[in-house]
Amino acid sequence: MMSTDLILFNTQLGLKVVQYDGGEEAPQYSVDNCLKAETHCSDDGTNYNLLLKTDEPALLTHVFIRGPENCTCPIKTALLWASKEPIDFASFSSSFDDFDKKKFDALPADAPNKPLDCLTTDETYNECVLELETPVEAQYFLFKLTEAWGEGNIDVGAIALAGRKAGGDAAKVGIEPLKKLALDEDIALFAWRHTGTVYEIDSSKDGKIVNAFLSNGGLFIVSCKEDQDNGRKAAFDARSLEGLAALGMSIFNCEAELEGFVNAVGPASDRTTTSLLFCTSGIQKKFVATSLPSSVEEVVAFAKAANEGTATKFIKSQTRPPNDADPAHPGITVVTAKSFDELVLDPKMNSFLDVWAEWCGPCKAVGPTIEALGKLMKDVPNVRICKFDCDANETDKTRLPEPGIPNLKIFPASESDKGTGIRYQGDRSLASFVSFIHKNMTGEKFDLAAKTEEATKTQQRLGALMKLKRMAVLLSRKLEIFEEDIPSGLSEVAELASKLKTMMEAPDEIEMQPSEMEELISLAVEKATEANLDELAKKKMNRLVIDISDSASFEDLKKRAQDEKKLLVIDFWAAWCGPCLAFAPQFGLMSEEMKGAALFAKVNVDDQRGLSQKFEIKCMPTFAIVKDGAEVGRLEGADKSGLEALIAEHSY
């Protein structure tokens, strides 16, 4: 075996989590993520223990750890132990609490349970990679996460182990082979800061690798004509850019919808189809060549200008709409990255800004109130109500340093620098927004009493409309379960649902007073209750699905499945999980279609925490396949064809 022939334990030796006492901030930030170079956020606190295991013993030569991009508490320090046998860390771990490199170096050589090494990430990239002086043959690996670059918890973006099969070559090879291995294995570990290297990236590569380039710096050719690329490679082959570009050069097709690239520069529809060369040397420092360089000298000159910050800046931005207006919502000004300074920092305007994103639930919840605010304030000449999509536009952290969204703030009119503005911290009612603007604006002020009265009436109408919308959606969803076969006892409910649906197609045209809307909602609740809609819908939706109410019913059902020689298919769901609710009718239908092969059951993860923990449920919905009393397969996510295939794979 060649000395450079490393293997990545994460992908080739089944590296997995055996035990972890750090918890997670949310299910989507599971500790398993960091073995896939994805974000893990722990619960509050530090000094967590993470025990990992490979499928078989191997020779450990390289260790890598880093924090996630743009997290507040990226990992700073971790201790490492390696052993052929399971590590009972509970017996000694606490004696190493709060250890850092200085304390580790002070340990005597014969100190009990001395760690193999102490990893400390750098403050710029929150990354640490080391090649062991003496490789270690092991199957169990313990990381003790002791410190973060921040306070509160520890965030880990990636942990990777590499080496060779047990008994392999122990010669040192440096870090470069590990970087190449990570690229070949399509796992985004490194910041890729070395120079003089050309990377060919196409649509088959993970966008996360592209994102690493874009976040940490380098030169990029975005090209649709390969014959134009070769001449510019010479600048890198000759190492002419040593010290000027943080990375190397990456070349990829401008039409490729790579995740990282799209996140940084926008979708293909917003890009030119001609080749261009641009450089990034860190977040908020992207530059574009005004004309495409045609020689090594021009490439180097552009890199120098970008490195010094004198080249033409590039900023990811939406196309600016006509008159900066939102055509669907009068009074709302649409702000893009390119129009931010002109519209938000306008010295004559008090600009109230809503920083939002399409995927953000709280943003959507406050959206109608912001839209009503725009309509309410459009006659105030020195107040501008703005919305800024932070996914479609690059965010200037010097103006918007806050990490969360929705980020609501006002930039008062001022001839001097507006700085970061004033963030709104109150309740999200229309009257409160009006009061906040009035208090913090400068220049001539509007009549607060009149606007507050108008806002209160508008808020009452908004509240009633939201209730009406929720009732319309609720009734429609429950009636959809019956498809075309709606029971005659539900005819009045169906008529009401149809009326509500028609009304909500044009809410601005509803002339009813809030009190009248409340009466209509009460009538709908009354009719639905009289017709027993909830129970009928639940019975129709679940069909043959059995509700597991406790551990005893689970054991009984497991035994029944064994006795009947059937699989037990369990849906772990939550009442707040949209995909769970949407998939429920399909799961019920499957319980009838596949009743000869399996029993179908449901577990509410909030009501049955013990069962959820037993199955180590990390996200919802999760489907577990139990055969002969043991789990034999699982599927995360609502995928009917995938679940059908899994059931077929394990059927008797």
Kindly identify the CATH topology of the largest domain. Jelly Rolls
* Envelope shape: flat
**Spans of 5+ residues with little confidence (pLDDT < 50)?**
192-196, 203-208, 224-229, 268-276
Global structural class? alpha+beta
Total helical elements? 18
Q: What is the arithmetic mean of pLDDT?
A: 84
Strand content: 15-25%
Determine the CATH superfamily of the largest domain: Galactose-binding domain-like
Per DSSP E runs of 2 or more residues, the count of β-strands stands at 25
Question: What is the domain total for the residues?
Answer: 5
- Terminus-to-terminus distance: 43 Å
Helix content: 25-40%
CATH architecture type of the largest domain: Sandwich
Our Rg estimate from Cα atoms comes to: 29 Å
* CATH C-level class of the largest domain: Mainly Beta
Please tell me about this protein's structure:
GO terms for molecular function: protein disulfide isomerase activity. InterPro entries: Thioredoxin-like_sf (IPR036249), Thioredoxin_CS (IPR017937), Thioredoxin_domain (IPR013766). This is Thioredoxin domain-containing protein. Belongs to the protein disulfide isomerase family. One of its GO terms (biological process) is response to endoplasmic reticulum stress. This protein is α+β, with helices and mostly antiparallel strands and 652 residues long. The chain folds into 5 domains: 7-184, Galactose-binding domain-like (Jelly Rolls); 198-314, Glutaredoxin (3-Layer(aba) Sandwich); 322-446, Glutaredoxin; 450-538; 543-650, 3-Layer(aba) Sandwich (Glutaredoxin), CATH 3.40.30.10. 32% of the residues lie in helices and 23% in strands. Strands 1, 2, 4, 5, 6, 7 and 9 form a 7-stranded antiparallel β-sheet that branches. A 6-stranded mixed β-sheet has the order 10-12-11-13-14-15. Helix 10 (430-440) packs antiparallel against helix 11 (448-480), helix 11 packs across helix 12 and helix 11 (448-480) runs parallel beside helix 13.
